[in-house]
Amino acid sequence: MAVLRTISDVLPVLFLIVVFGFFSASSNGVRLPSQALVAKWSQDISKELKTKLDAATGVQQVKMLYEEQNFPAVYVNGSVLVQKVANKWQEMLQDKMVAVENIVLKLEDAYKKHKRNYSIVEDDVQYYNAKNASKMPLNLTYLDNFKSEVNTNYSAVQIPTDIWVGDNKILNGIEATNSIDEVFRENYQKDPQLLWQYFGSADGFYRSYPAAKWMTTEKPEQDQYDVRRRGWYIQAASSPKNVMILVDTSGSTFGMTLEITKVSVYKALDTLGNDDFVNVAWFNSSAELVSCFETFVQANLRNKNLLKDKVKELTSSGIALFDKGLKKAFEAFKEFEDIEAAGRDQQNQGAMCHNVILIFTDGGEADERATFEEYNVPVKIRVFVFKVGTDSMVPADGVREMACMNQGYFSNIQSFGAVRLTTLDYVPVLSRPMVLSGKKHFQWSDIYLDVLGLGMMTTLTRPVYNTTGENNVNSTKQNQQMLAVVGTDITTKNMEDTVPQRKPRVNSIYKQAIGPEGYAFGINSNGYILLHPRLKAEAEIEAILELGYLTEPPNVDFLEVEYEIPEKTKLRIEMIDQETNQTTMRTPIMSSDERYLEFVNMTYSYTFITNTTFSVAIAQPQFGLWEWSITSKGSLLEDFGNLIDEQDDVTLLIAPWEFCDCHVGQEGRITTENITNSIQEAIAALQQLSTVLEICDDYMVRKLLVDANITRHVADYWKKVKQNDPTKFDGIIFNAVATHGGVTRIYPSSVPEEWTAEEIAAFQDPWDQQYYRRALYTDKYVFAAPYNSDGVMLPVNESYWTSLMVSKAVHMTKDIIHAVVAASLDPDVFNDMWIGKTKKGFNDMEDEKLSCVNESIQCYILDDGGFIVATNQEDRQGNVGSFFGIIDGDLMLDLKNKTVYNLMTMNDFQAACPRQSAGAGSSGPRSTSVPTLSDVVNFNTWAVTAAWSFLRHFLYDIFFLGVSDFSTSYVEAEDIEASKNVSCIKIVKQYYHGDGIRDSSGLIDCTSCSRLWRASHIDATNLLLVVTESGCDACPNKVVTQVAEEPPPGEGPDPCEAAKHPRYRERPSEHCYDFDENESFDDCSSASILRSHLYRLLALQLLLLILTRLM
Q1: Using an 8 Å Cβ cutoff, are 359 and 383 in contact?
Q2: What region holds the VWFA domain (predicted)?
Q3: CB 389 within 8 A of CB 256
Q4: 920 FRET partner, CA 20 to 30 A, in 19, 748, 810, 968?
Q5: Number of neighbouring beta carbons within 10 Å of residue 325
Q6: Where are the beta strands (DSSP E) in 42-186?
C-alpha cells in the first residue's frame, strides 16, 4: 500500500513536469522557463509598468481635471457635416462651370468671326510661346496658388514638337483665339481661387492662362505633350466606346512594320479612358485574342498595361485573312452585347454607346463586303483602318474601303514619328454625332498628376463646336467639326480644404472637426477615389513613375485602399448610385505608416454632389462621435495669461493650425510664438462690449485657452510628484500631455531645449504624432520603439539610444478622448526593470540561470505589430525597432500559426518597383515578303533585311518628319522601356495580436534539433513577452518581412480572374451620341504623307535604287 501511495503521490508531479513543463523544459541543451513562469513574469512586468506610468503620466489626474469642468457632450453628426461638405463642393464646382462656359461661348464666337488667312506666316501672329519666349518676352511673377512664375495679363501657347509651328491651321487658330485672354482675366478676377484655365485645339495647340514657361521637359525640342492625347480631352471629345483592336501579324508585317504596329497599338490604347472598354486580337490565317481577357474589359491602366505586354509578344507569320479577324471582332461584340444586356450581375459593364474596330495592318486588297453585309448592315460598328509601314508594294484599296463603307476612317502610319498624331484620327469621327446634336455636357476627368506641379487634380471640361454654317440641327449643312475642349482644374487639396478633416478652420462654417482619426474621401461613378488619406501624394507618384505628366490616372478603387469587407462593398455601390445615407461597421483601419492595424467601429456618412458623378463621405471612429462643447468660464485675458505665462521647467507647444486670419495658408509653418502673439492682438482688438473674437476663430481659441489652463495643472502635478518621490520618475526622460485643442506641454523643458527647430516643429501638432493617434484606439499603454525599417544592425551608441515612447488616451464619458498622456523612457532603465522582474520565480525565489539575465535564453518584448521594443540579447540591441520576422522568421511564423499574431494583407496598386532589364527576343527587322525556311536559317538574309528595313524607315523619318521628330519619335517609342521605376503591385502586410489568447507556447522542429518558445501578453500594454531557445545551426533562419513587397511570379492578384468578376460601376449613358443621320462621310481617308512630298519621294526612291544596285 505504501508503494502504491508513493506512486500515486509522484505521478501528478511527473505529469506536470513532463507534460506541462511547469518548472522548466530543456531542448537543444538549454533549460527554458515554464509557460506558467513566463506568464508570471509578464504579470509582474505589467504591474510594475502600470503602477509607474499611472503615477508618472498623471492619466487619472488629467481625467479628473477635465471631468470636473462639467462640459456638455455634443454629438458630432457626420450626416450634417458631409452635407455641408457637399454644398461647399457644389458651390466651388458651380463657379468653375460658369468660368468654363464663358470661355466656350467666347471661343465659338471668335472662331465664327475669324476669316482664315491662307497666306499667314508666323511673324504675323503675336502670342507668348510657352517653350520659346524670345518672340514675345513677358515679366513673370511667382504666385503660390499656381506654384509657378506667371503673368496674369496673358495666356501662353504650347505646340507639340511633332506639329510644325508655321502650319497654316495652327497660326490661324492662334490668331482667332488671341481675344480669349480677356475672358480668362475676367474669370480670374471674379474667382481668385480659379486655377489654370485652358483649352486644347483640335488642331493640336494648347492655350493656357495665366502665361507661364513650359516646364515639362528640359529640352523643349523633345516635348511630347499633345493635349489631344490627354484623358480629359478625349473624354470630352466623344462618348464612351467599346473598342476591338485587330493586329495584322501576317508574314508581310515581319520586322520594323510589326514594331511600328506594336507602338501604334500602345498609343491607341493610351487614348482610351475608364468609361471605355477594350480588347485586342491578332489575326493572320486565324484569329485569337492576345490575352486572357475573354471579353471586353474596362480600359483602366492595369488592363491596358496587360494588353500592351501581350501585344509586345506578338510575332509575324502566315497570310492575312481579314475575314478571320473581322468575324472574331464582330462575334466578340455580339457576345459582349449579350453580357451588357444581362448587366453581368448588374455590374454595368460596357460603354453601351460607340462600338469601334481599329485595324492595324500593312495593307491589303481583300474585298470583305460579304462579311460586313453579314455582321454590320446597317452600320452599328465603325471600322477604322491604320495602314502601317512604307511598303508601297502592299496595296491599300481593300482596307481603305473597309473604313469608308463602315463610317470610319483610313489613315497611314509610315514611321514611328507618325504614330502619336495618326492614332488620334478616329477621335474627330466619333465626335461628329455629338457636335451635330448641338448638345454639350460638363464632364469631370479622373484624377491625375498636374503637369505644372499643383499635385493631384481633376479637370472640368466642356467641348467647343464649330458654329459656322447653318445651326439648324436637322440640316445636313451644319458643321460637324469639334474645335476644342475647354478645361479648368480643381486639385484634391481644393476639395480637402472644404472638409473639417483634421481641425476647424478660422471663420469656418464648421464648429466641429471629425478628429485626428476621422477622414473624408470621394469617389466617382467607376468607384475610383478622388481623395483619400491613402491616395499617394505628389512626391510618391513622381517616385513611382518618372514620366511626369505622361502618367495616366492612378485608377485606384475605394476597395483597394481600404480592407474589403461586405459592408464596404455595399457602401461603395450606394455611393456610386448617389445615395445619401449613414452606416456603421466594424472594420480594420491601417495606421498612416502602414505598420499597424486597428479594429474599430466606424460610422460612414455619405451623399452626392449635384451635377457631377462624384459622391463624398466622412468616416468617424467610435471615439470621434462625441466631443465636449468647451467654453471658457473666465475672461479671455485671464485665460490668455494661463497660455503665455511661463511655467518653470515646462515647455508649451501649440499646434500650427489656422487659429487667426494671419495664419491662413501658413499651416505647418506657424510657431507657438506666432500663435500667442496673434491671439493677444485679437483680444486687444475686442470692442468694449464685444465678447467674440473677430480676427481669430473664437471657438478654436477658447478651446485652446481651456486646454492651456488644464494642462498647466497637469504639469504642476508632474513637478509635485517628482518633488515628493523622485524614484517615480526614474527612467523617464520627459513627460507630455497633448490635447484635442492643439496644446502640448513637455516636462522637463531641458529636453526640448536640446531639440532643433525642425524637431520642435515635428512635435508641434499632436494630431500628426503616431504616439497620439495610436493611443486613441485602445485603453492600454501603447509602446513604440524607433522604427528600424531595414532590420539592419544599428550602432549601439548615444545617437542610437533613442528613447522608447509610451502613450495612453484619457477616456472620458461617451468615449470622448480629449487628451493623451505620454512619456519617453530611457531604454537602459526599461531593460533593467523588465529583465530584473524575470529573476524572480514562484514564491519570489531568484534564479538568474532561469531568467532573461541569462543570455542563453533569448527574451524579446514585441509590440502589437511584431516590432522589437526590447531584448536581453546584448548583440541584438541594434535591432530594436526592427520587425521580429527579420531577426527570427521561424519563430514569427510559428507565432502566427498559433494565432499569437494574425496577419492581414492588402494589394497596393500605387506601388513602384525597379524595372527588370528585358532580355533579347523582340521581333526581327521587317521583310517585304513572307520569309522562307532558307531565309529563316540564313543569317545573311536576316542581317541584310535588318539593315535594309531600318535604313528605309530612318530615311522616311528624316525626309518627311525631320531630324528632331525622328529623335523624339524613338524616345516616344521607348517610353515603355525608359523609366527606372514602373508602376506595380505590392503586398502590404500588417500583423496584429490575436484575440483572446493571453499565453501560448510551441515547438519548432528542425532536422536534427528543435526549439521551444513561450509567449505571454503584458497586461495593460500593447506588449508581448517572448522567451525562446537559441536557433540551431541546422535550421537556417527564414526571413519574414513586414514591408510591402512585390509578389513572386504567379502570385498576387490575378487580372484575368478580376476581369471575370468586375466591380460595380455606373455608366455615363445619358451622354451617348454614337450616330447622326446628318453625318457626312465624304472625307473617310487621309492622304498619304508621301503625296504632299512628291519631289522628296522621287529623290528617295532614286537613292534606294542606287543603294539596291550597290548591294
Answers
A1: yes
A2: 242-427
A3: yes
A4: 968
A5: 27
A6: 73-75, 128-129, 141-143, 148-151, 156-158
Among 844, 940, 1108, 1059, smallest CA distance to 291 is for 1059
**CA angle (368 as vertex; 365, 370 as ends), nearest 5:** 150
At 514 the pLDDT is 86
* C-alpha grid cell, residue 734: 520627459
Helix residue ranges, H only, 804-932 = 827-837, 884-887, 889-897
Question: Among 266-280, 809-823, 1059-1073, where is mean pLDDT lowest?
Answer: 1059-1073
**Cβ neighbours of residue 480 under 8 Å, at least 6 residues apart?**
432, 435, 436, 466, 1076, 1078, 1079, 1080
Distance in angstroms (rounded) separating the CA atoms of residues 233 and 127: 23
pLDDT in tens, 1029-1078: 887 766 777 889 988 888 887 777 888 888 888 999 988 866 789 998 88
Number of residues written out for the chain = 1111
Retrieve residue 309's grid coordinates.
505586354
Band of pLDDT at residue 985, cut at 50, 70 and 90: confident
What contacts 491, CB < 8 A, 6 or more positions away?
195, 450, 454, 455, 456, 457
Q: Please give the grid coordinates belonging to residue 537.
A: 501624394
Handedness of CA 399, 402, 405, 408 (dihedral sign): negative
Residue 722: count of CB within 10 angstroms of its CB: 18
**Average pLDDT, stretch 256-279?**
94
State the pLDDT at residue 15.
41
Residue-by-residue DSSP string for 1021-1054:
BTEEEEEEPPPPTTSPPPP---S-BPPPTT-S--
Q: State yes or no: pLDDT of 912 exceeds 50.
A: yes
Which H or E run contains 344?
helix 322-346
3-state secondary structure of 1093: coil
Three cell numbers written together for 333:
461584340
Please give the Cα distance from 721 to 724 (Å, whole number). 5
Query: Which of 28-32, 112-116, 513-517 has the weakest average pLDDT?
Result: 28-32
Q: How far is Cα 36 from Cα 34, in angstroms, rounded to an integer?
A: 5
* Span 612-630, average pLDDT: 91
364 φψ region: left (φ > 0), alpha (ψ -120 to 50), beta (else): left
Whether omega for the bond prior to residue 240 falls within 30 degrees of 0, making it cis, is: no
- Which among 1052, 1064, 1054, 1049 has a CA at the least distance from the CA of 292? 1054
Q: What is the pLDDT of residues 950-970, one digit of tens each?
A: 555 555 554 444 433 433 333
C-alpha distances (whole Å) from 1100 to each of 164, 393, 925 are 22, 16, 20
Cα radius of gyration (the chain): 35
What is the maximum alpha-carbon separation in the chain?
A: 128
pLDDT tens across 55-87, in order?
999 999 999 999 998 889 999 999 999 999 999
Count CA atoms closer than 13 A to 887's CA, side-chain side: 28
C-alpha to C-alpha distance for 685 and 692, rounded to whole angstroms: 10
Which grid coordinates belong to 860? 524579446
pLDDT of residue 926: 31
